[in-house]
Structure formats: C-alpha cells, structure tokens
Amino acid sequence: MKRKDKINLYFFLFSLFILALLIFPIYSIGNRVDPFIFGIPFSLFWIIACILIQFVGILFFLFIDKEGS
Amino acid sequence: MEKWHIALVAISIYLVLAFLIGIMAGKGKSFFSLSEYAVGDRSFNLFVMWFLMGGTIFSAFAFLGGPGWAFSKGAASFYILVYCTLGLMPWYVIGPKVAKIGKKNNYITMGDFLGDRFQSKLLTIIVGIVAILAFIPYLTLQIKGMAYIFNVLTYDNIPYWFGAFISFGIVVIYVATSGVRGAAWSDVFQAILMLVIAWILGMYFVQKLHGGIGNMFETINNSNNDFLLIGEEGSAMSKARYSSNIIISMIGFVMWPHLFTKSYTTTEKRIKTTVAVYPIFALFLLPVLFIGFSGYGIVSSDQIENSGQILPYLITNYLTESGLLYGIVGAGALAAAMSSSDAITHGASVSFGRDICKAIYSKIPENIELWIMRGAVFGVGAIAYLIAIFGSEGLIQLLLGAYGPIAQLAPAVYASLFFRKVSAMSIIIGLVLGVCVTIYFQYFAESTLYDLHAGLIGLIVNITAVFFFSYVYKQRDSEIVKAEEFGEI
Predict the structure, then answer these.
(1) Size of the A and B interface in Cβ pairs below 8 Å
(2) What SS3 class is residue B251?
(3) Are B417 and B486 in contact (CB under 8 A)?
(4) Contact between A11 and B75 using a beta-carbon 8 Å cutoff
C-alpha cells in the first residue's frame, strides 16, 4: 500500500473514532447533566471536548502529510 | 425618527456593502471565462475557503432554526454542532482526489465527475436533476428567512415580498456577474458579521435573562431533568434518531453538489487545511444555541407560533433599547441567509448549464454555456422566489423532502474512487432505488424502522444494490480505463 493511501486509511479510522464518541452507544457516557463544567452540562461539554480532540488530531495528520511530501 | 427607520438604515448599509463586495470580487478577472465563473480558476486561498465553506453552511436554518431547536428540543440541538464538526471530515480524503482529477480532466461539477468516471451521460443528467431539485427548496427556505427578518424588524412596514426581493435580488446580481468569486468574497464579509453578532447576542441574552451560563443551565435542568439529554423520557429525540441523523449528515454533507464542487476551486493542500480548521467554525455556533436556551422558562411556547421565531421574539421583546442594535441584528440574520443562498444559486446555475444543457447538446460552445449559466441564476432565482412568496406551506414541506436523497449520491462518489469493479448500471440502479426508498419512508410510511433516519435506510438499500448489480452488469471497456485512472489518483 502506498504511503498516501495508508494515511488516508488512518484518517478514515480516526474519523470513525470521533464519530463513535459522538453517537450511541458510546455517547451514553457523555449523555449526563452532572457535572457541570464551566457552567455547561456534561452532555454538551463532551461534544466540545470531541471537537477539540478532532481539531488536534487533524493538525497531527496535516503534519504527517507534510513530512511525507 | 422611529426605531424601525434606524434599523432599516443599518440593514440598508449592510446590503449595499454586501452588494459592492460581491460585485468588486469579480473585478480584474475575466468576465468571459467559464472556469473563472464556475470554479474561480481553481485558485482560492485558505482564508476564502474557510469562510466560503463556513458561510455556506451557516444558513438561515442555523440562525433562526438553531435557537428554535435549542428552545424547543434541548439537547437534540447539539446535533447541529456535531454535524458541523463531522460533516467535512470525509472531504480530507476525497476532496484532494476530486480536485486533482478535476484539474486534469477539466471538471466543474459533480455530474462531470461521475458521468466521466462511469462513461454515462444519463448519470450526469440524473445528478444534475437531483441537484437542482434539492437546491430549490433549500433556496426557498433562505428566501423565506430573508423576507421574515425584514418584515419582523421593520414592524410590518416592509412587506414580505419586497424584503425578499431586495435582499435576494442583490444575491442574484452579484452571483450572475462575479460567479463563485462573488459568492466567496461576500461570504467572508457575511460570515464575519454574523459570527460577531451571534456572540454578542448569545452573551447578552444569557446575561440579561439568567445572569450567566451556569445559572441558565441549572434553571433548565431543575425544571426538566431530561431536557439537556438525548433519548431519556423527557427528551425530545430518541437515541436511534439522533445517532442516525449524525451518521447521515456525515455521509451526506459533502455530497451537496455546491459543496462538492468547491473541491475544484482550490488546491489539494488547501482542502486538507480547510478541513483541519473547520471544527473551529462549529465552536462559533455555540452562542446561537445559547440564544435558544436563554428563552427557556422565560418565553412560554404559546407566545410564539413556532419555535423558529424565538430569536425574533427575544429581540423584539428584550432588546428594545436601541434601533441601531436592532438593525445590526437584522443584518446578521440576513447575512446568514444570503451567504448560503449565493453558493446555492451559483451551484444550481452551473449544474443546469453543465449537467443538463451541455450533457444533452454536447456541441454548445463554452461562451454560450457561460451565458446559459448566467441566465440560469435568474431563472432558478425566480422560481425559488415565487415558491417562497406564493407557495403554500404544504408545498414547501413537500419540497423539503428533496434534502433526504442528497446522501444517496455518496455510494457513487466513494465507489468511483475506491471500488474499481463497480459498473455504471449498478450505480444508476442503486441511486434510483435509494432515492425511492428514502422518499417512501419520508412521506408514505407511518414510521421508519427503529426510528432511523429515512436517508439511512435508503443508503443501505442503495449500497446493497450497487454491490449486487456490479456482479450482474459488467463494466464496459471504456469504464475499465476510467476506473484505472480514478483509482490511481
């Protein structure tokens, strides 16, 4: 498998991972009101945290991509 | 001077600016180049791309519907954040491939891409028709949003038809003259404006009505334990529906032809960077939801006709001090509606010119094709405007069903890049079956299976059909050559 295809495959798996965090059944862990974090219910905080993880994750992929070229 | 006069002046200044930016964007670029009109000569930078993708998605639905969902459905509205976050992820993988092969073979639409890969003009035309059928209701909603904002903020002094006519008329003119570049640069301006306004409003209402975010959510939680959760007894949405909604939007998002074709407006590297910075846009949506939550417990649901009116209601009842502020809010809401409608109008015009006219009469020269597209901006615009102003509520509901089938284009796009053995016939059968099943579950069935999204059921049928018929109908020789070419990209 070419390096580029490999990165794409890993990116696909990473997308599935983030998706899984945000839908049921795994979202059941986040789907609660307590504790409130920064005044925000945990169910919403979980989503914001996922968005941040995703952001950092994609930056990482960009970095790897750049190394390759 | 009455308050609505001041509001009207502020809105007018915004409209003039949006118009000028849209028109100026095309200055110095060739007015007679099809590639410039359709895909901006494939030269957009990261800054423009981010706002173009963001502004296009941040529509009247997000500005009016987002607070409405938060107000009436609670945690179900988190779905809006999630789809914005996940929706663009598949683009990281397919976007660069589509851009690369598009540049090589000179594609400007999704119909070009699929039609050439599967060597089927029929497929190009089907994609063009599906695209335009989905664009018109989307556009209709935006126009209704514009009319509504004008009407409410001027206390009924500007009639419904006139507000929409002016604001959408401006969009039509700058799209017809400056093409995708006009849409892109006005989106930069509109997106910045609406984001700033969303944050100011969100913070203001939360502070004024509840004295802080923490207080607000605690009050909501105390009155209904399940409001901030999904799939509990007092929640507004089941777990299956919530999850399948998210899955379908992740698959369907970049299949919207006007977003898909943005792959052609830039380079591979910039596509990846755009995907990377895109989640930040989702975070900017947060205050829009806060606006809706802040109305909970303050506004009772019988005070407004439908939940989409919560933002205008809050503004007219709790933001009464200044006409200027009022006008700025109106400008922000208009910006949201306009920044989506420009990209859609443009997309529809290009699809009509290329996927329908050019596919049927392949002898049309490029300069005539360009004029067909410019004309289509007015044609599609007029149809959507007439439906928005004169169409019945039922008609609009019916048209909105066109949303669902968009995700049915996904198997064709993915198969074209990753599944070499697939044949044109199987793709067409899958697409048609998928669309039919989706429409059946949307309109005719009493309930869907396990409360899943209708589009997801259609997709399962679609994918199964593609696999099955690929073994029944073999590829023609010309398809095999293309399959090789697309697979190597």
Answers:
(1) 98
(2) helix
(3) yes
(4) no
d(CA B143, CA B141): 5
**What confidence score (pLDDT) does residue B400 get?**
60
d(C-alpha B9, C-alpha B350), whole Å: 34
**pLDDT digit string (tens) for B52-95?**
887 777 666 677 778 888 888 888 888 888 888 888 899 999 98
* CA-wise closest residue to B454 among B409, B411, B387, B401: B401
The residues with which A37 forms a beta bridge, in sequence order, are A40
Q: Are B314 and B68 contacting, i.e. CB atoms less than 8 angstroms apart?
A: no
The DSSP letter of residue A31 is -
For residue B398, what pLDDT is reported? 60
How far lies B150's CA from each of B147, B163, B165, in Å? 5, 5, 11
**Backbone angle region of B300, left / alpha / beta, with phi > 0 → left and psi within -120 to 50 → alpha:** beta
Contacts of B329 (CB under 8 A, 6+ apart): B153, B197, B201, B315, B319
Distance (Å, whole) CA B200 – CA B196: 6
Residue B111 tokens read as: 């119909």
> Do B66 and B292 touch, CB atoms closer than 8 A?
yes
| CA distance linking residue B455 with residue B407, whole number of Å | 7
Whether the Cβ atoms of residue B172 and residue B385 lie closer than 8 Å to each other: no
Q: How far apart are CA B15 and CA B20, in angstroms?
A: 9
Distance from CA of B77 to the nearest CA of A (A): 10
Contact state of B217 with A40 under an 8 Å Cβ cutoff? yes
Q: Would the pTM count as exceeding 0.90?
A: no
Strand partners, B296: B299
Residue (of B347, B400, B311, B308) closest to B171 by Cα position: B347
**What would the two tokens of residue B159 be?**
């009639």
Whole-angstrom distance, CA of residue B462 vs CA of residue B456? 10
Q: pLDDT tens, B146-175?
A: 888 888 878 788 888 998 898 899 988 888
User: In this structure, are residues B334 and B167 in contact, taking their beta carbons and an 8 Å threshold?
Assistant: yes
User: Across all residues in chain B, what is the average pLDDT?
Assistant: 84
CB proximity under 8 Å: B 432-451 to A: none
What residues are paired with B299 via a beta bridge? B296
- Residue A40 β-bridge partners: A37
- CA atoms of B387 and B397, how far apart (whole Å): 11
pLDDT for position B467? 92
